[in-house]
Write a structure and sequence with these properties.
Chain A: This is Serine/threonine-protein phosphatase 2A 55 kDa regulatory subunit B. The structure holds two protein chains of two kinds. By secondary structure, chain A is an all-beta fold. Chain A has a domain of 295 residues: 7 Propeller (Methylamine Dehydrogenase, Chain H), CATH 2.130.10.10. Helix content of chain A is 2%, strand content 40%. Chain A has a four-stranded antiparallel beta sheet, with no helix packed on it. Chain A has a four-stranded antiparallel beta sheet with strand order 2-3-4-5, with no helix packed on it. A four-stranded antiparallel beta sheet of chain A has the order 8-9-10-11, with no helix packed on it. Chain B is mostly helical. The chains are: A mainly beta, B mainly alpha.
């Protein structure tokens, strides 16, 4: 199939990892976060049950399970009589320096630094205990031996190296590791704290939006992220649709922003839910550090850091939902927080939608594509066909009407490999990994794709 | 009117969500509840504004002239101003018409205190007018054009209705304020929320009079219902004190039935002065 647009090819190598193959999946298996490591060799997922699964890319190009561990358990706050969910809200990888992997995981209240390391040798020949670990009878020991390391089956162990707790009165929504690799931030609804990765008993508060009188509350922090290169810059978005850039050099408390990115709301389009749908659900710096990508309920916007008053690009993800906001409010769908992602070269952005659809927008050509991640549609090594949502009558077989969309199937979490055209899509309890067969990673020979006629990318008018 | 029905429905749904959030696992989600309370407030404004529609008809002709003057002043904010909906627009204008000449600069600041509540917003707006010492009762009394009741009925919802954007679908009332509101958030943030609002408890007798008109004689105990947080914080006991002997334990049952009853009683008791934010 011809490759259409930079990175927008839809001839893909496809893998699906399902955590539960039953028809009624356990809600604990619902994936709540997906994140590639900084090299892209590893992929981590967190789920509602507090479990983390790490995949490793094999030389052939496929991702297979590398390690699984229970990161967080349910807790109970006795003071407030509240249960603390074990759901993993975010995972962030540290850069890999040697053979061990380090990643931060967080639930609503506690952040943990995990070390994942391999062991392929074990000591044998202890003096005081036998092979099964039972303590030997000392009177029976007649000679001393030096234990030696012998090869064993590869064992991947995960151990919590740091636990950062009791720093957040509200629910943690983001963590972000600074480019200095020494500090990181954690953000809850009202505050952002700065931590040193080695120090768990204290953190610095750098943003505090809590009003003296909670009745005066007007906005909450939704996402926060450090700039990829400048260790003094961070961005955070709010429920009012604004995104702020803060400079930690200018003052210790970053309540005053250095820049405020906000687009004026069109008065003609106001409704009961205008404020709701303007709430920013995700913020991502581009790899270059020059742009910001924000996602609100109906659209994704690219902002130039040098221009605050409006985005440089706006992409309508599913504008056909604008007339259905009341229904979506009733069903709570309007509160869904969709994430967004950049590709390695910052030329394509991706975000999820309903019906297990996800969308990719090529920034240069303004072409976009809608694809579906679902067990029924995807065979192994199949080519993904572009989908289209129509408001009126179906014009093509692959079209789907707005009213037929399944709003229980939502792609909230998506991730793009840092350099290659490999994407990870989480659909409820299933993880889908798609690879572009024209990937520049050099694995062309392995991809034997059963493909249909070359699919055409849809032409949509420029935004 | 159908948007009133929809507003009522959205209010019920919103209250149900806030109620159910109290029993959700993981604790109350501040973000979601804030958003729900914003929707609740928008719907409530539309719902309540309808009550004032008929009463303010008297005032609208006289105030329309002043409204046009202000439209001209705010020309720069909007490319084309559409016909303001007479009822609530003019109610809002009539209230602030007293310190007439400073109204234009107050246009943007009107929105500043949106979230602090109608009374506070109006009071602080009055404050912003170079220390005008007008207070709500003064305004009501000195209004030459409308009876005190209509004045204060408008007044009781003024800041929120005229400072808020057109909430109903397709209703593009007051675009200048909408535009001003879009910058409100920035100005509010810059000035901080530390502007001291006039005492929230300065609920005027006028408001009670106004609500008597609406509530068909049911006296609204505005002094008890100071804000929505108090209501939910006390487990609906404030809501239900007048009308039933329902205990708090019953209301904590998380079935939609009791949520529904609470919704209906809440709708009757909602004080236009209340800020619809759930506090933690």
């Amino acid at each position: 199939a011809a490759k259409n647009g930079a990175g927008c090819s839809n001839s893909c190598l496809f893998q699906r990892h399902g955590f539960n193959f039953h028809s009624h999946p356990n809600s604990a298996d619902v994936i709540s976060t997906v994140e590639f490591s900084q090299s892209g060799e590893f992929l981590a997922t967190g789920d509602k049950g507090g479990r983390v699964v790490i995949f490793q890319r094999e030389p052939q190009g496929e991702y297979n399970v590398y390690s699984t561990f229970q990161s967080h358990d349910p807790e109970f706050d006795y003071l407030k009589s509240l249960e603390i969910e074990e759901k993993i809200n975010k995972i962030r990888w540290l850069p890999q320096l040697h053979s061990a992997l380090f990643l931060l995981t967080t639930n609503d209240k506690t952040i943990k630094l995990w070390k994942v390391s391999e062991r392929d040798k074990q000591p044998e020949g202890y003096n005081l205990k036998d092979e099964e670990g039972r303590v030997k009878d000392i009177s029976k020991i007649t000679s001393l031996q030096v234990p030696v390391l012998r090869p064993m089956d590869l064992l991947v162990e995960a151990s919590p190296r740091r636990v950062f707790s009791n720093a957040h009165a509200y629910h943690i929504n983001s963590i972000s590791i600074n480019s200095d690799c020494e500090t990181y931030l954690s953000a809850d609804d009202l505050r952002i704290n700065l931590w040193n990765l080695s120090i768990t008993d204290r953190s610095f508060n750098i943003v505090d939006l809590k009003p003296d009188n909670m009745e005066d509350l007007t906005e909450v922090i939704t996402v926060a992220e450090f700039h990829p290169h400048h260790c003094h810059l961070l961005a955070f978005s709010s429920s009012t649709g604004t995104t702020r850039l803060c400079d930690m050099r200018s003052r210790a408390l970053c309540d005053q922003h250095a820049k405020l990115f906000e687009e004026a709301v069109d008065p003609a389009s106001r409704s009961f839910f205008s404020e709701l749908i303007s709430s920013v659900s995700d913020v991502k710096f581009s790899h270059s550090g020059r742009y910001l990508l924000t996602r609100d309920y109906l659209s994704a916007k690219v902002w130039d850091l040098n221009m605050e008053k409006k985005p440089v690009e706006t992409y309508q993800v599913h504008d056909y939902l604008r007339s259905k906001l009341c229904t979506l409010y009733e069903s709570d769908c309007i509160f869904d927080k969709f994430e967004c992602a950049w590709n390695g070269t910052d030329s394509v952005i991706m975000t999820g939608a309903y019906n297990n659809f996800f969308r990719m927008f090529d920034r240069a050509s303004r072409r976009d594509v809608t694809l579906e991640a679902s067990r029924e549609v995807c065979k192994r090594r199949a080519v993904l066909r572009p989908r289209r949502v129509c408001i009126g009558r179906k014009r093509r077989e692959s079209d789907i009407c707005v009213d037929s969309l399944d709003f229980r199937k939502k792609v909230l979490h998506t991730a793009w490999h840092p350099t290659d055209n490999i994407i990870a899509i989480a659909a409820r309890n299933n993880l889908y990994i798609f690879q572009d067969r024209h990937s520049p990673s050099g694995h062309h020979g392995v991809h034997r794709i059963e493909q249909e006629t070359a699919p055409q990318l849809e032409d949509t008018p420029p935004q | 009117m159908e948007y009133k029905v929809e507003a009522h429905r959205i209010m019920s749904i919103s209250l149900g969500k806030i109620y159910n959030s109290r029993v959700q696992r993981g604790g109350i989600k501040l973000h979601k509840n804030l958003l729900v309370s914003l929707v609740l407030r928008s719907a409530r404004q539309v719902y309540l504004s309808d009550y004032y529609a008929g009463v303010c008809l008297n005032a609208q002709h006289i105030e329309a002239k002043e409204w046009e003057l202000m439209d001209a002043d705010r020309e720069k904010l909007i490319p084309a101003s559409e016909a303001a909906q007479p009822s609530s627009a003019d109610c809002g204008v009539s209230e602030a018409a007293q310190p007439g000449q400073t109204r234009t600069t107050g246009g943007a600041q009107l929105c500043l205190k949106r979230h602090v509540g109608a009374e506070d917003g109006r009071a602080s707006r009055l404050q912003e007018k170079d220390g005008d010492s007008l207070d709500p009762s003064d305004v009501a009394v000195t209004s030459p054009v409308s009876p005190a009741i209509s004045e204060t009925q408008c007044g009781s919802s003024d800041c929120e209705t005229d400072a808020d954007a057109a909430v109903t679908e397709g209703d593009s009332r007051q675009p200048p304020k909408d535009h001003a509101c879009s910058h409100r958030k920035r100005s509010a943030e810059e000035t901080g929320v530390s502007e001291t609002p006039v005492k929230r408890t300065k609920v005027t007798p006028n408001a009670i009079v106004a609500n008597n008109e609406i509530e068909e004689g049911e006296e609204m105990d505005t002094s008890n219902v100071s804000n929505l947080i108090t209501i939910f914080g006390s487990g609906f006991s404030g809501l239900l004190s007048k009308d039933s002997a329902k205990s708090e334990s019953e209301t904590d049952d998380s079935d939609s039935g009791s949520g529904q009853i609470c919704c209906e009683q809440m709708l009757k008791n909602l004080n236009p002065w209340t800020t619809a934010i759930v506090a933690f």
